[in-house]
Design goal:
Blueprint (H helix, E strand, L loop, with lengths): L4 H9 L7 E4 L18 E4 L3 E4 L22 E7 L2 H9 L5 E5 L2 E3 L4 E2 L14 H7 L3 E5 L10 E2 L14 E4 L2 E6 L2 E7 L5 H6 L5 E2 L11
Parallel strand pairs: 1-2, 1-5, 5-8, 6-9, 8-10, 12-13
Antiparallel strand pairs: 2-3, 3-4, 6-7, 10-11, 11-12
Keywords: Transferase
Organism: Marinomonas mediterranea (strain ATCC 700492 / JCM 21426 / NBRC 103028 / MMB-1)
GO molecular function: succinyl-CoA:3-oxo-acid CoA-transferase activity
Length: about 220
């Protein structure tokens, strides 16, 4: 069975390490903030100028002026800092973010990512994604494995305008955890109850399947 958005966030949270500075993109990535272990010190960075982003607020903790880059209301942890977006992008471009988690429309076997434009549809622009993929070495893409019509989003070559070239190495879909090496997707883990055959069927780009592919450990 395909992972829920919450389960995808849980799996990404397993990649966090103590002391990390992490940028969470719009969509599924923002949910990762809810699954950071209590005993782990992680500072979440938002490109609109917040370092130390916390969980989504309850009605009691909601502050309408405290928002992330996607204009969702958020909380700030103890020790948080608020600054200009110019300082935030200097942090990103300077390579000071340890992990970036982004959504995408397509990823291909060469590590290219398309995440900002669908032709003939109204879009608000690329936002900070171009800076994030250029300034980070450790990027995890979260996305559905295929479109609603069943077309693969893991391709031999992206068909949409690119956000970045050769920058993606790790992908979490609702079906699998994959890494990119030498022009191919490597299947590392599969979602609980999802067959390797289904993953094969929904992966258009070259897929390498190791002898053993464990199921993910998610709630």
């Amino acid at each position: 069975m395909a992972l829920s958005r919450e389960q995808m966030a849980q799996r990404v949270a397993q990649e966090l390490q103590d002391g990390y500075y992490v940028n969470l993109g719009i969509g599924i990535p923002t949910l990762v903030a809810n699954y950071i272990p209590d005993d782990m010190a992680v500072m979440l960075q938002s490109e609109n100028g917040l370092l130390g982003m916390g969980e989504f607020p309850s009605e009691e903790t909601l502050d309408a002026d405290m928002i992330n880059a996607g204009k969702q209301t958020v909380t700030a942890v103890e020790g948080a800092s608020i600054f200009s977006s110019a300082d935030s992008f200097a942090m990103i471009r300077g390579g000071h973010v340890d992990l970036t988690v982004l959504g995408a429309f397509e990823v291909d076997v060469n590590g290219n990512i398309a995440s900002w434009m669908i032709p003939n549809k109204l879009v608000k622009g690329m936002g900070g994604a171009m800076d994030l993929v250029a300034g980070a070495d450790n990027i995890i893409v979260t996305m559905t494995h295929a479109s609603k019509s069943g077309e693969s989003k893991l391709l031999s070559q992206c068909s949409l305008p690119l956000t970045g070239k050769g920058c993606i190495k790790k992908i979490l879909t609702d079906l699998a955890w994959l890494e990119i090496h030498d022009g191919a997707f490597i299947l590392k883990e599969r979602a609980p109850g999802v067959s390797i055959e289904e993953i094969q069927q929904k992966t258009e780009g070259t897929l390498i399947i190791p002898e053993r592919v464990p199921e993910m450990l998610v709630g």
